[in-house]
Each structure stands twice: as C-alpha cells, then as structure tokens.
Amino acid sequence: MQEWQMNTKENMGGYKPTHQQGLLLRAALLQGENALAAWEEWRAAVDIQRLDAGSYRLLPLLYRNLSLHGVNDPLMAKFKGVYRNTWCKNQLSFKKVSAVMRAFHEAGIQTMLLKGAALSLNYYRDYGLRPMSDFDLIVPTADALPAMKLLRELGWETSVERPERYIDLTHAAGGFSDEYGTKMDLHWHVLHQCLQENADEDFWKGAISVKIDDLSTHVLNPTDQLFHVCVHGWHGDVFPTIRWVADAMTVINSSPDAIDWHRLVAQAEKRQLVLRLKDTLPILRDLLDAPVPLSIIQDIEKLPIAAIERLEYKSSPGRLIRGFGSLPMIYTSYVRRSMNDGSFNLLGLARHLQYYLGLEHLWQLPLDVIKRGIRRIWIDLLGGKSAPIPTKRAFRQEREASKTSV
User: Fold this and answer.
1) How far apart are CA 183 and CA 99, in angstroms?
2) Please, are residues 17 and 4 in contact by the beta-carbon 8 Å criterion?
3) What pLDDT digit, counting tens, does each position of 82-112 carry?
4) Domain 87-222 is in which class?
5) Which of 32, 242, 252, 373 is most buried by its number of CB atoms within 10 A?
6) Which of 359, 355, 363, 369 is nearest to 325 (CA)?
7) What is the DSSP string of 52-105?
C-alpha cells in the first residue's frame, strides 16, 4: 500500500489523504485518463451528501478539471455552484482587504499576502478555485503594533483581548473581522515555529511583487511558498488538511522552473523543520507524480532530525502523547521561541500557556491545566468519549461560548 493511502478515518485531522481523498486529488489535479479513471472510482465510492470538510474544499478544483475534460454528470451542477460561491466570496474578501492594505501602505507599512490569499492570486489565478475561511496578511514585526491600531481605526475588531500583549509569544493575531463578518489574521511572522527577530528576513528578501487591481503587494517566491504549504499542511487540524496537496501541486505546476529545490532543503534544515518535507514531498511524488527530484528526497532523508522536531512529531494532531493532550504541542512551541536567545524560564512558559489556552489571567492557569488533565485522562486512559483535537482557536471559541451560554 502506498504511503499516501495510510491515513485512516479515525485520523481525519491528519495531513495524509485517505484512499478516497487521494482519488479526489488525482481527479482534480491530473490530466487525461489518469484523472478520468480517478474520477470514476471516486464517484462510485463516495456519498456526496456526507463529504468530509477537507474534500468539500476541493470541489471547485474538481469542477474546473472535469469541465476541461468534458465530463457530463448530474453532480457537475453542484460542483459549479460551489465554484461560483467560492468566486463571489473571494472577490468580496479581496476588495475589503485591499482597502486595508492600501491604508497600511499609506501609513508606510509593508505588506505580504499569505496562505489562501497568496495562492489564489499568484498560483491558482482564479478566485473560484481556492476556498478561504479567512484572509492572511503579514507585516514586518516592527510594524505589528501600528498595524493593529490602524486595523481598529478602520473598524476591524478581534475577540482576543489586547492581542498586542502576545507579539513576542506568537506569530499572528487571529480573528480580526469587520462589520460584515469578513475575517482576517494579521501576521508578523510567517511560521509559528520561527519567532526570532530576524526569522523572516530571507522570506521578505526573496518575496515577489504582485498586484491587486492597481495596488502592489508581495507574496512568497515559489520555493518559499511550497515550503510554507508543506510545513503548514503537515501540522493538521480538527478536519482534514489535504488541501495542502492541491496547493503544493498548484505551486509546482504554475512555476516548475522557479522551484529551487536546494533552497527548499536549506530552509527546512535552517528552521529545524526537516520532518515536514520528509513526510510531504514523497506524498506529492507518489500520489500525483510531482516532479520532485529523487535526489532531493534522498538528501532530506540524510539530514539529522533535531530533538525538538521529534517531540513536535509526537505531539502533533493525530499523534498526541496519551494523557497529555495538547500540552506537549504548546510546550514545544515555547521551546522553539526561547531556544535561540536562551530566554527559557517558568514564567515565560506560564505566559505562553496562558495565551494558547485562551485565559484572561495568569492565576487561572493552574486550575485550567488540572481540569484539562482530568478530561484528558478520562478520554485517553479511561476510555471516555473522544473529543476534537484542541487548538488555539478552539480554546478561544470554547471560552466565548461559555460566556454566552445560559
């Protein structure tokens, strides 16, 4: 059995496609008989009314590819509706956020698009193909505070109380939204694993210029974009993150000669994110025949794996260390933040936990950790009912819900 087929239904938050998800990806991304054969097999096996969230996000891409292949099926009308809905939503989002970027530029704040926004604009090149739940925009770290202030002046608010307190603890302030519910995450670091002062220097230097209408901004260059997609997709979430496969292939297919494979490996080694590429690149090569040089995969296999990466691997979604829940994942993120400047201390770790658990006050931390420990023991060790993998956003949503519950 190929590696890409080994994700099970019980691990639906993982980054490896299941067999059915692999068929969908092949149908949406390959050409000719290979795409059509995958479509026929997926069509016969799947219940479209019970499609998982990760697969649903791929329907616009499936619609485009099947249309190009002249497929005539009753489901095409549904796929077309998903495509059109995605196109409309993304058009509105780009219009609203371009106004934010214009205000930033007028204030002397440099911007760069990340994730879905960058991919839609520079790689998919079609607003209907890549659904986005929010908009990700990054500014230099030194401009994070002015950017937050300006966002509020423009009418964007966040449910996070005083996010400026956490600039040194994390890479972004999530959950900004305008009066119409458009959501945006403001970043000041590209990766949550790399929070050093100069962590993004090479990303900014290598960035390329793009335009939204008459507004100029930046996106990561193709090599760094591919690296970001693989690193971010590897982490997983409470629902399947298989979209990273489509994103990665779209970057490769749109810029095959622009991928500097040696820079890709160097980025992983420099940032101690080797396991991400070690796991993801073979999936692209085996599942979709991506032109990933075998020599590059062999080079990655030879690289040493840092201890922090091994712990992250064990504590990532789908592999949580039994009895400890998400705490090892939070711990490793703090270790990464402090490992280069030697700032590791218990108070810093406590503040880090406070932020990721969504607590208002530091004194709430001991009781909250105990409560979560009891719940985790009930789930993992005593066979209690399972729950979704907790994430930073889920912690905050749970806290907000508890405030409004009757």
Assistant:
1) 14
2) yes
3) 999 999 999 999 999 899 999 999 999 999 9
4) alpha beta
5) 242
6) 369
7) -HHHHTTHHHHHHHHHHTT---THHHHHHHHHHHHHHHHHHHHHHHHHHHHHHH
